[in-house]
């Protein structure tokens, strides 16, 4: 199964090789109160592995890509009007 995507801002077509998602969190002591009031940060990252015609593997944020076709059919052809 081949999934082709395009980069929203830069254009270009790519083949999707795989996808991953991960959560992360960090904590450090604050400058004034130390560990009594730590500074905490967290986030969520979606990463899509793609390659272009040159075969070079690249990683992109999932929000930067749009699906062009799946096995030669557009998402609308596969899902019809019922897809959201």
| Low-pLDDT regions | none
Distance between the termini: 22 Å
| CATH fold-level name | Thrombin, subunit H
Number of domains: 1
Structural class determined from secondary elements: mainly beta
Question: What is the overall pLDDT average?
Answer: 90
Helix content: under 10%
Q: Which CATH C-level class is it?
A: Mainly Beta
Question: How many H/I helical runs?
Answer: 1
| Share of residues in strands | over 45%
User: SSE order in H/E notation?
Assistant: EEEEEH
Main sheet record: 5 strands, antiparallel
Using brief descriptors, characterize the structure shown.
single chain; 84 residues; mainly beta; 5-stranded antiparallel sheet; 62% strand
Tell me about this structure.
The protein has 84 residues and is mainly β. It has one domain (3-73): Beta Barrel (Thrombin, subunit H), CATH 2.40.10. Helix content is 6%, strand content 62%. It is built from one helix and five strands, in the order βββββα. It has one helix spanning 75-79; strands at 3-7, 13-30, 34-51, 57-61, 65-70. It has a five-stranded antiparallel β-sheet, with no helix packed on it.
């Amino acid at each position: 199964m081949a999934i082709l995507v395009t980069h929203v801002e830069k254009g270009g077509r790519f083949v999707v090789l795989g996808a991953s998602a991960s959560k992360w969190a960090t904590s450090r002591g604050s400058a004034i109160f130390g560990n009594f009031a730590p500074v905490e940060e967290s986030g969520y990252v979606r990463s899509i592995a793609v390659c272009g015609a040159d075969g070079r593997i690249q990683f992109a944020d999932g929000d930067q890509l749009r699906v062009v076709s799946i096995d030669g059919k557009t998402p609308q052809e596969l899902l019809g009007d019922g897809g959201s």
